[in-house]
Design goal:
Length: 92
């Protein structure tokens, strides 16, 4: 790539850091209302500029990893609980 121009036969892999709802749905197979709830609850980072919302890909992937379960439906032992989950388990 020279001067910012992609020449024929050259390929570049683009990995969007911020996703639209549609991209996040395609990536995760979650529903739009589920993603909106995660954003509104502050479980995943999103940015709003006017009416446009973008979801932070790394934060979405972290959320999914933090909530990974084994095939038996139990939380995976190799996944450290997120700070929010740890706070929920602490006695008040």
């Amino acid at each position: 790539m020279q001067g910012g121009v992609l020449r024929k036969g050259q390929h570049t892999e683009l990995r969007a850091e911020w996703l639209t709802y549609e991209q996040a749905i395609a990536l995760t197979s979650l529903g739009r209302s589920t993603l909106q709830a995660l954003v509104l609850d502050g479980d995943i980072l999103a940015s709003r500029v006017g009416r446009v919302v973008r979801i932070n890909r790394a934060d979405l992937e972290r959320y999914l990893y933090d909530h990974a379960v084994s095939s038996a439906g139990e939380p995976r032992g190799d996944v450290a609980p997120s700070e929010a989950q740890a706070r929920q388990k602490m006695p008040a």
